[in-house]
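A note from the maintainers: we've had questions about how concatenated examples are separated. There is no special marker in the raw files; a new sequence line simply starts the next protein. For clarity in this README we add a label.
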Amino acid sequence: MMKILIPVDGSVGAEKAVRFAISIAEGKEKEITLLNVQPSYNLPNMKIFFNQEQIKAFQQEGAQEVFARSLEITDSLSTQVSTLLRIGDPGKEICAEAKASGTDLIVMGYRGLGGIKRTIMGSVATHVLHETPCPVLIVP
């Protein structure tokens, strides 16, 4: 069974990636995982105003909003779709999950929600292309 990992962040690019992954997975033995990476918020000033439980609840709420949109797209798919939340840097966490789960293919959008960050630091997609242990399909 082929394992497909789809990083989702609520962006139009992520939605396109989900739709494309469905088109290649339909009718085949595939295991699809939607991955959302939330920021850690592990900053000294954040801890002054929010405790760990509040931060964790905020991260989970953000992920559930993203998953809800993506799962609406996958409802018609006969293949089972699972969701997974990771905390940290998106590029690093996507690669770490791909390695840990034995992912066969990552399908992701070219652009996510971080336009300015992408310009300054390089895109998540570029990081994943260079660091992941499996093939990556970028959906424009």
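[label: protein 2]
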Amino acid sequence: MDEKMKSSPNNIDQIRHLIFGDQIQDYERRFQEVIKKTDQLKKLVQEQKTDIDAQIKALEQTIMKTLSDSQEAIHKEIKNQMQSLKKDLASLEAHQSEIAEDKLDRSLLADRLIDLAMALKGESLLDQFGKDNPTDA
């Protein structure tokens, strides 16, 4: 029986070969092709992933550079506008001072003209006030 048991696996292989024969070899060949194609697809997917990662990195760098440039341009524009506004403010302040000086000059001129008119008329300002207020007399 011992010999029967030892030859039994060989017998099973022979029986299997007789029953399935070329089909098992065909399945083995197909299985190897599927494994080979799977490996090729894995390699292709890995290559594409590497390419996509590189493209994403390049795009990120481009975006960061664009943002940096935009921020710099905005900062310069704000700085220029602030300088322009400071100049405008200084100009307005100078103009306001001129207007205030002109107003003072006009008031002084008006006072001088009144004094001149009174002098021409021969009256002093005090005399004029005395005539306007009869209660003082």
